[in-house]
Amino acid sequence: MRFHRRQVLIGLAGAAAACRAPAQPASDEDATVTLDVFDDGLHDIVDPGAKLVRRAEGFTWSEGPAWDPVRSRLYLSDVPENKAWMWSEAGGKELFLDPSGAAEAEGFREPGSNGLLYANDGSLLVCNHGLRRVERLNIETRERSVVADQFDGKPFNSPNDVIEASDGTIYFTDPPYGLAGMNDSPLKALTFNGVYRLRPGGTVELLLDDMTFPNGVALSPDQTRLYVSQSDPAAPILRELSFDGDGAIASDRILFDAAPFAEDGSPGLPDGMAVDAAGRIFLTGPGGIFVVAPQGQVLGRIRMPKATANCAFGGDGSRLFITSSDVLYELPTKTMGI
Q: 141 CB contacts (<8 Å, ≥6 apart)?
């Protein structure tokens, strides 16, 4: 399959469902959020009168938001520009990493960082496209070390998103978005686009090799379930895995299929996500952010003015930060992130 990630996000997905509301118009001003309510429970999560606040702008494609609770600031990637930024109420938008990925990377269409995660040990986990690895960044010194850069002796494609369990187990996705030509790139050494696990002291384990474009990854609050999104217009899904006591996959199901919502041309595909303390998944997709109950029921959709890549809870835990095309937004919620 040949498609440009942002072209797919911008052009091939949409939404049509019950309780449909018109898409929120793009504006330079803060605006009241528009909600598509599929279940009244959504009103207990997001206030219909809440403001969608523009916190920073001027990016080419914003991604990978990660909240730093120690320094009270948010990190995010501008993937095509090979830069990472930070935002805080005190300092506003400030450059954090330049380059965020590889300084020079021939054969890459996007050599910068993508997914970011504030790690258990206070470092920042970075999905580095150009260096084809997951790395650990010392936030103060900016020194980097390799967490994982290959499987079965072959380099990864371009690690995209990452999540860490409380015991230090790391899960990450590896689609080909960073490579020029993506699946057709001569640099692509692996024949699949994988989902991986790295347990403390262990080696990289392949969990899934049958997803076309694995993208966002998250854990349930009790860490018994792993969620993986697939940004494929032919199969725009959210997949849920559970594991037995030995770590083998015990169950595997499609928790949410965005295809029925992708019929009117609204921008977006299943991509990044955040999970709240009640286990509800805030998943970016056609037209905005879907709120999905742990059982798979779609409670509603938070409409976004532009194609939306990712989101993360921050601040006191109730503030949802959203990377949407060239803008970083904030939305107050009535829930708390993990």
A: none
Among the listed residues 23, 53, 26, 17, the one whose alpha carbon sits nearest the alpha carbon of residue 35: 23
Structure tokens at 227: 């969620």
DSSP string, 23-50: PPPP-SS-EE--EEESSGGGGGTS-TT-
What is the residue type of 172?
F
Strand 298-303 with 308-314, pairing: unpaired
Per-residue pLDDT tens digits for 40-88? 999 999 999 999 999 999 999 999 999 999 999 999 999 999 999 999 9
Cα atoms in the Cβ-side hemisphere of radius 13 Å centred on 172: 34
| pLDDT range class, residue 274, cuts 50, 70, 90 | very high
pLDDT tens column, 293-320: 999 999 999 999 999 999 999 999 999 9
Rounded-to-integer distance, Cα 238 and Cα 221, Å: 17
Distance CA 126, CA 117 (A): 7
CB crowding 198-225: b at 16 or more within 10 Å, else e: beeeeebeebbeebebbbbbbbbeeeeb
DSSP state at residue 22: P
| Cα–Cα separations (whole angstroms), residue 25 to 28, 30, 62, 268, 287 | 10, 11, 19, 16, 12
**Sheet containing 327-332: order of strands:** 31-32, 51-57, 327-332, 319-324, 308-314
pLDDT band for 160, please (50, 70, 90 cuts): very high
Say if residues 101 and 128 touch (Cβ distance below 8 Å): yes
Please report, as a single letter, which amino acid is at residue 147: V
